[in-house]
Amino acid sequence: MLPDLKLNDIVRLRKPHPCGSHEWKITRLGADIRLQCLGCQRLVMLPRRQLARRLKNIVSSANNNESAN
To answer: For the chain, what percent of residues have pLDDT higher than 70?
Structure first.
């Protein structure tokens, strides 16, 4: 089951992107989820189930970022 994700959350995936970065920003939610690599800014679309398998943890939540500002 996919954890409760929000727009602009930063997530860490199990395997690194070819650029070397593990961290991704969520830029779109829906049946497919769009992720933006924080290393090279590449955009990738993944189905929810595939993201649930690849997800390691949530680095920072959008709610924490909004309350800090």
So the answer is: 86
